[in-house]
User: What shape does this take?
Amino acid sequence: MAVQQEMAVVYPPDAEELCEFLPETDCGKCGASSCVEFAEAVLSKQYPPEKCQELDGKFREVLSAIVDLPKDPIPYDLMMEQTPCELIEINGSNGPGPLLVTCNFKETVRILREILEQTRTSAFLLPTFTHGYSVDNAVHERMFKAVEIWKAIKENHVEDRLARPSLVIPGLAESERNAIKQLTRWDVSVGPLSGFLIPLFVLTQD
Ligand code: SF4
Assistant: This one.
């Protein structure tokens, strides 16, 4: 008898969180009764993003790419595989940053790279040492540490690549924001819970 392999979730975007990036006027012009209903329809591929005329072309293009990305769960036998804590520049330097800090779980870094590359989002991605724990597990086990983030910043000479000292932590690590801010003395923003929404987060920070 085949043994069903256990899988870990990848936090796909949900309608409520996507809605935070929409106009939230509930005008109904797209045919949905509210922006959150529109978000649900887009994520389930029933509506194309073009149905909301309030969104600009770049936003719609990025949202389409997000919807098309694979969101398969991660097989448990890949858990805790580690990747080096080396700065990764994605899609060239269309201006400096942003600096996205994450864990050093290999699959998380692979998925984030794919998300940023497929949505043509320019960013620096910095894996930091979490013993190979994914962000949610690292926070739970107190392994998403300010000191490791600071170490990775210094070892990679990240200051030389950015216009100003600021970084973005995953939404799942929001509880660590103050500790990271106190140790680094950098601006620390909190990104979305779903990594799939990072491109929209970056776009709306510009
Ligand atoms: S057209 Fe856009 S702003 Fe209006 S309800 Fe639909 S998603 Fe919301």
The mean pLDDT is 93.
